[in-house]
Design brief:
single chain, alpha/beta, Rossmann fold, 5 strands, 13% strand
Amino acid sequence: MSRFVFDTNIIVSALLYNDSPPRMALIRALNQGTILSSAALVSELRDVLGRRRFDQYVSPAERNIFLRALIRGAELVTVTEPIQVCRDPKDDLILAVAVNGGAASIITGDNDLLVLNPFRNIPIMTPAEFLRSHL
């Protein structure tokens, strides 16, 4: 089974927008393999989903249910080899989870990560590119 790392921005979009490429990519990844995460990525996602601006789209209770389900289905990776190459240092964690977890690909909409494609032979792609490559 393949292992995938999703950037927080894609996970949030997957929750908020039905039939969107981020949602379809997340569902396809869950059907084809394992989502990799880390304690730090879960914490970041929890913080982002806790923002009140999302109340107009999805209730806090629904966001908590989504987060718990995602955590239960993910494999938490311990980062033993930190990465420091991204022009936005916050994005280094995505790369570290991918490298330490043996990811097949990274799915993101963040140009700071996309410009590094591939990183250590790990493809970095948008949700639309992921959907085209994982039929």
